[in-house]
């Protein structure tokens, strides 16, 4: 029930197909989901259980005919491993402390400090905002389908301009009248507010914690698709305000735009000229092949050493702008990554990135809403036992669900985690190491506490991968006030804790003792943490799966990259294989452009009837996503 499946479901429904989208889980989003704090604790408990589900009832096998063959599906999700959670805060007794009642998600125009950026226009919205549109039911608020503690969706459909604070030229929100921004904390420990575990539990619905940590490139494939399909109206976004670097044991801010470079105090005038000259070259490097062709077979790090750049500039470019591996990335790959970063600057703010308010889990729901508007049907807690193959044609003809029902379709889309071990015998998976921390202050304090930051920590040991750190503030609607939500991600070499804990120790204070060194007191204190490994199936080819027919398509889970390009490319590729002549996610029709038959228009003009076609979206329930999608032509 992740992002690729949701995009495919929306594209199919939009092109006139009938779509059934089902999920065996009791929450939406699969490994792309977002949880409240109590919801995440339930998810942790579920994934720490090692018992496998036995097939209690195999009555469905009696439904298989002589000319049919069954491909059983897995009953337990095995994509998450090595889940470990820790509480470092003041461990006062949280027994009897209950999560506060469901907090309605207020429209963003009423949330102080949360400037909304809708990718429907090229500029950050600063115009006069129209009134809010009527609130619509979110998928997870459907009666009888909401799991206890699951994160709620953004209940307001926003249009470009809704919910934006006044913005400066750099895209950052200006302080509202009568409010002052907090000054940076100088004598850390004594001024910090003590956040207890019971407070986190009580304010658990303030958290929207993503299982996968990503940002949206402002000129990436996902933003382009959101704009093209008009799905952007279902979500609200916030600019990532800072790009940080970790060098010589310290966290520093990286100048990205031209204005940042020339206003920077950490660079000398010579370094500023060097950096601007190199970044200008990267924007049109294809026109100057003589500059890099001798280094095409060398690494990008080696190429940077030949460009008369100081060590600090090389570090900034390699780890914070291109964000590539020092030992594995080629010169061309590094130049392409640098150019992509630079091209995304300035579209919505002074960094290339956007973050969806209420978490990454909102994005699949936006596409599922589009699917539902055009007639898609969604079912949670609806397990599928097997795929049924016709022996004569070799194609999949139906599925059998846990009720024993046969559901026929022309095409079947299934997420990798639903496939059984017998189907995945020859599949070699990669793993992603993930950590989520709740901290009491930012890794780099500034005048503004409301910062969304991205930091790349270079490998601490040989053979290790760089770690991507994304720090979210409370105005992203992902954590409670006076706390920060920190996501750490890297390709796995060992368990998630072994991969990521050394980085956590470098950046944060894990000591719960009152008597600590001054250096540790200056660091943000970790209040709670969870580590886990997640399967990365993005590189698996379809022919690696044993025995799958041609009309069954497999979607992968999240990959380790920062952006979402892999999911969008995969969704478009699968859609075009099914329907090569159809447009992929075309814009929905403008109600003013709908042409009605004369038979429908005449009664309306006389006031004798209300044609349902006058409001094409009103009859469809706005629901959310599920695990596999079955598609048939209407």
Automatic annotation (TrEMBL):
Residues 153-168 have a biased composition (Polar residues). Pfam families: RAE1_2_domI_C. One of its GO terms (cellular component) is cytosol. SUPFAM superfamilies: FAD-linked reductases, C-terminal domain, FAD/NAD(P)-binding domain. InterPro entries: FAD/NAD-bd_sf, GDP_dissociation_inhibitor, Rab_escort, RAE1_2_domI_C. Residues 111-193, 581-634 are annotated as: Disordered. GO terms for biological process: intracellular protein transport; small GTPase-mediated signal transduction; vesicle-mediated transport. Residues 625-634 have a biased composition (Gly residues). Residues 594-605 have a biased composition (Acidic residues). Keywords: Cytoplasm, GTPase activation, Transferase. It is found in: Cytoplasm, Cytosol. Residues 118-130 have a biased composition (Low complexity). Residues 432-560 form the RAE1/2 domain. GO terms for molecular function: GDP-dissociation inhibitor activity; GTPase activator activity; transferase activity. Belongs to the Rab GDI family. This is RAE2 geranylgeranyltransferase. It comes from Ptilonorhynchus violaceus (Satin bowerbird).
